[in-house]
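STRUCTURE REQUEST FORM
Protein name: Transport permease protein
Source organism: Acetobacterium bakii
Requested output: structure tokens
Priority: standard
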Amino acid sequence: METVKKHFFSDMSVMLGRSMRHIFRSVDTIITVTIMPIGFMLLFVYVFGGAIQSGTDNYVNYLLPGILLIAIASGISYTAYRLFMDMQGGIFERFHSMPITRSTILWGHVLTSLISNGISVAVIILVALIMGFRSPAGLLAWFAVAGILALFTLALTWIAAIAGLSAKTVDGVSAFSYPIIFLAFISSAFVPTESMPPAVRAFAENQPVTAIVDAIRALLSDQPVGNDIWIALAWCIGITIVAYIFAMRAYKKRV
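Status: completed
Returned output:
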């Protein structure tokens, strides 16, 4: 068992290093991922912010959690793309001819997604600070926010793995992230759900993005989180488990 664990972690570190080198050689991917969310943040704060009744004097504080989720949803499309290109280029077959743990090939892409999206989130928070974002949250609350964002990234990354392993074309790989990004617009990310029509409100209040956004917003504003954090964790963990199962099935089927 110790030998298996040793080989698993050493193989995974090699695959992680390979994926990270691809990221550092094309830093424009991280820049591209951050530009759109920052653009949304600038647009909603400085153009639409005055007309939106969010119940707070600082709209950046209200908006930031949703922007972070949009950034992550945008970023995971690159994970799907890199997996797709590896499949098309026959890289997986070459790796399988070597004495390595097969699942580490996927885990290398997954961990790279966590790191690259973490960098994007940090850049967006820095821009938000320049725009006036302020948080009274303590260190523990920030750790909780980081944990929720990491779980959300992990959940979406395994969904991206399914797309990368199953898609037939590059366009198909990229298109799957759009519905996920669109979920943020039908949630409490930009406006309170109370202002929505009944049917839209019912959907918004019972989809994962709203619970995650509300939990992060409460943590950053040092307010009671209530059940939102448990609902958010349940969504993230549930999606991760289901997506992981289907991703591994798609992986075994393709290779």
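Reviewer notes: Residues 59-89 form the longest helix (31 residues). The chain has a mean pLDDT of 82.
Form closed.
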